[in-house]
Specification:
Structural class: alpha/beta
Mean pLDDT: 95
Number of strands: 8
Distance between the termini: 31 Å
Radius of gyration: 17 Å
Helix content: 25-40%
Number of helices: 9
Order of helices and strands: HHEEEHEHEHEHHEHEH
């Protein structure tokens, strides 16, 4: 399935501190594993990027770079259960350095202590407080939140663009990727279900905002740039969402990354494939910030 030695080295390094059973451990144990893994990959921030922690509408946020005419709202991944300001600190700092835009990383509340819709409520609170054009970016669960924000603001002010990185968008196990990649490294189909149970309390998600792929109407949304990992049970969520957006007349670019598993942003310093994908994400953010639709 994966033959690229750089990618295999990334998987080995990840699994050394974040074993497969971490995804189904208790929330506290999972967070300990995840924090240790992120620390192993965390790169130093570029020296010129100024970083400030600040509360925005009661939500803890971390701001990277000086104020800019357009800012980036970054929503971290972690299945709504793990992750925070530190887990994606280097990613946000590097985006700020590369684009010259201010990045606002949102430390939304986590499940199971806070179930849906606490997560999107926090994102919306920060969104309402930001009085400038925004590009919204999210990876994994954060990708769902980015799409959900655009849906929740349908008919009103929209971000300039939405960048969704290996997002889970509420698809089902009947998609081919859930079968083909059921035992994929770093995220299995069973892990996806375990996270969904925690955030939705074991009940089916009935809020259409919680399942963007199932939303009845995707027209008039902001343009999208979607990146999927080919060796990922969530791959087809991104593919199907791109198809639905295009059918609704929304400009969308879809990029699928062969040989890469879920969570590959952390591999950008050790995998040429991941590095190129991260560069494409940065370029897409820059295009949206310049109001250039890809």
């Amino acid at each position: 399935m994966i033959s690229d030695p750089q990618v295999l080295a990334f998987i080995h390094k990840t699994e050394a501190s974040y074993p497969a059973q971490a995804n189904t451990a208790s929330a506290a144990e999972n967070r300990a594993y995840y924090d240790a893994m992120c620390a192993n990959f965390r790169a130093p921030r570029p020296e010129n990027v100024i970083v400030v922690d600040r509360s925005i509408s009661g939500v803890a946020c971390r701001l990277y770079g000086l104020a800019s005419p357009v800012c980036v709202l970054y929503l971290h991944g972690g299945g709504f259960v793990v992750g925070g300001l530190d887990s994606h600190d280097d990613v946000c700092a590097e985006i700020a350095d590369a684009t010259g835009l201010q990045i606002i990383s949102v430390n939304y509340r986590l499940a199971p202590e806070h179930r849906w819709p606490a997560q999107i409520n926090d994102v919306e609170a920060v969104w309402r407080a930001v009085d400038q054009p925004v590009v919204v970016v999210g990876d994994s669960a954060g990708g769902l939140l980015a799409a959900a924000l655009c849906l929740s603001q349908k008919g009103g002010r929209q971000p300039l663009g939405q960048v969704l990185i290996y997002p889970g968008l509420g698809g089902g196990g009947d998609a081919a990727s859930y079968r083909e990649n059921a035992e994929a490294p770093l995220l299995r189909a069973s892990d996806v279900l375990a996270y969904q149970d925690l955030v939705f309390g074991g009940q089916p998600a009935t809020d259409p905002i919680a399942r963007p792929l199932k939303a009845p109407d995707l027209s008039d949304l902001t343009p999208a740039f979607i990146v999927t990992a080919d060796v990922d049970p969530l791959r087809d969520d991104g593919w199907a969402y791109a198809e639905r957006l295009a059918a609704a007349g929304v400009p969308v670019t879809l990029r699928n990354e062969a040989q890469l598993p879920h969570g590959f942003l952390r591999a950008r310093s050790m995998s040429d494939r991941a590095r190129r994908s991260f560069q494409a994400v940065i370029a897409a953010i820059g295009r949206f910030a310049s109001q250039e639709v890809p």
